[in-house]
Amino acid sequence: LTFPLLSVTLLVSFGSSMLYGYNLAVVNSPAVHIKAFYNTTWARRYGHGLAPGPLTLFYSLTVSIFALGGLVGSLLVGLLVERYGRNGTLSHSTLLILLAGGFMGFSRELGSPEMVIIGRSITGLHSGRCCLGCRAVHGPFLMARSPAHSQGTGEDFIFPMATGSANLRGFLGLVPSIFICLGVFFAQVLGLPELLGEDRFWPLFLSVVVVPASLQLLLLHCFPESPRYLLIERNDVCGATKALRQFLGTPDVQDVIKEMKEEQRSLSSMEMVSVWQLLRDRSVRWQTLSVAVVNAGMQLSGIDAIWFYTTIIFENAGIPVSQIPYTTVGTGAIEVVMGLIGCFTIEKLGRRPLIITGFCTMGICSAGITVSLLLQTALPWMRYVVVACVVGIIAGFCMGPAGIPFLMTAELFTQSHRPAAYIVGGSLNWLCNFTVGFIFPFLQMSAGAFCYLVFCSICLLVALYIYLVIPETKNKTFMEISHIFA
Fold first, then answer.
1. What is residue 226's DSSP assignment?
2. Rounded to an integer, what distance in angstroms lies between the CA atom of residue 477 and that of residue 411?
């Protein structure tokens, strides 16, 4: 792992995955201020304020529209990468964040709640194109192709690494997840009352995303285009050789060039499978179903409810309002630590133990929240059990469900089926993200404490499915995995 490769890994994750995490959590702490702005603006326009139901609907749309933008972005990323390349797509997409920051930053000055919603949708579009969207079409960031662990056809990665670095496959596959956790944590820290958590600062709080986006835009030009893109898709051997020498830090890159040329010949004779063909292909039906289950389960596990509505959850649990921002920051710090633990243990423990343990932990803790809320009247100290259960949900998610579904999708399919599989998994991911973000406030109002049992059931069912159906994919070729499914 050379310094240029490590640098570009961190840069891509900093300007893409971290922004995704930031935008997940940024609407949490200023929720009261944003709702007050909506109510005040509505009263100024129409002479009366919004009733609680419409106000909740308006705010839920603000929260969840981010996921609809992400869905559109993830579906467009393939066309953009083909036209502009990996580096070019990231650079062009950064301009979206600058536009979104402008919409959200000036929304209060112009008295326009619509600008907040538009800005949120544009940030989602950016995340779909640069974060999950890039994974959906080209596999996890910086995954290496190795003859021993190439799933038979070679990984489609954004920036290549040296041949034989398969021991880093799981580690680098989870690096974006670490930056998602960092993004959530930074949003929680900046949301403290001492920083940007006051009413007058919430437009600036939402638009802070322009800072890391601008840094990425400036620094990306220090790195060449993806060697794999240059050689395989543009047939630019000279450019690919020059880029590889810069990334690998050695003039001898002929073995890697030869390997990519072999892959180019293999891909030229390979017919890519469409989404419809994938869904009808009985030979991979269990793999397809597994991708759908783990990606939908990842979002329906309740983690989005925790990220979007932490403040509301803690308020209902009876945590003093003055303590909620600091409690939230504490959960974010634990999230980063657990993400790092998962990142450094995935290649030792394997995929299955981490993701099964993660979903089981989340399910048990979701049930714990329900029990704690029901008993908090008789036992006031149960409010702290709620906090512990929220921490448990976050820790369980970062342990495995946060990043392993993307890794599994790449490892369950050959290259001909992989893009379609990522579209299926990515679309379900974003749709379920939108569903949870939009309906959770209404679910909470109608079911009360019992709403968390929905998440508990989903987590435990997904864990059971993985235990019964999905094999361990660590250090296995596609043919070995396919034989197990058969």
1. P
2. 8
Cα 227 from Cα 113, distance rounded (Å): 44
**Rounded distance, CA 105 to CA 206, Å?**
7
Q: Structure tokens of 318?
A: 């009876």
Alpha-carbon span 262 to 267, nearest angstrom: 9
Write down the pLDDT at residue 310.
83
Computed over its alpha carbons, how large is the radius of gyration of the chain?
Answer: 22
Q: Which of 64, 54, 56 is nearest to 23 (CA)?
A: 64
Closest CA to 411 of 356, 347, 480: 480
CA distance 356 to 362: 10
Residue 244: helix, strand or coil by DSSP?
A: helix
Phi/psi at 18 (nearest 5 deg)?
A: -65, -35
Spatial distance between the Cα atoms of 143 and 116, rounded to a whole number of angstroms: 36
Residues of the chain with pLDDT under 70: 1, 130-174, 270, 343, 346-347, 474-486
pLDDT of residue 368: 93
Tokens read off for 212? 């890391």
Burial of 183: CB neighbours in 10 Å, binned 0-12, 13-18, 19+: buried
pLDDT of amino acid 308: 81
CA–CA separation, 247 vs 54, rounded Å? 53
Distances (CA, A) of 422 to 85, 232, 350: 19, 20, 21
CA distances from residue 137 to 239, 420, 425 in whole angstroms, order as listed:
23, 8, 11
Mind spelling out the 3-state secondary structure of 121-173?
A: HHHHHHHHHHCHHHHHHHCCCCCCCCCCCCCCCCCCCCCCCCCCCHHHHHHHH
Length of the chain: 486
Spatial contact of 348 and 371, defined as CB atoms under 8 Å apart:
no
Q: Residue 238, exposed/middle/buried by CB under 10 A (0-12, 13-18, 19+)?
A: exposed
Q: Give the H/E segment covering residue 476.
A: none
**Residue 1's pLDDT is what?**
64
**CA 442 to chain CA centroid, nearest Å:** 24
Nearest CA to 158 out of 270, 69, 243, 249 is that of 243
User: Residue 260 in contact with residue 231, Cβ under 8 Å?
Assistant: yes
- What span, in angstroms and rounded, lies between the C-alpha atoms of 304 and 298? 9
pLDDT tens digit sequence for 13-45: 888 888 888 998 898 889 889 999 999 999 998
Strand ranges, E, within 231-271: none
Lookup: tokens for 308: 């979007």
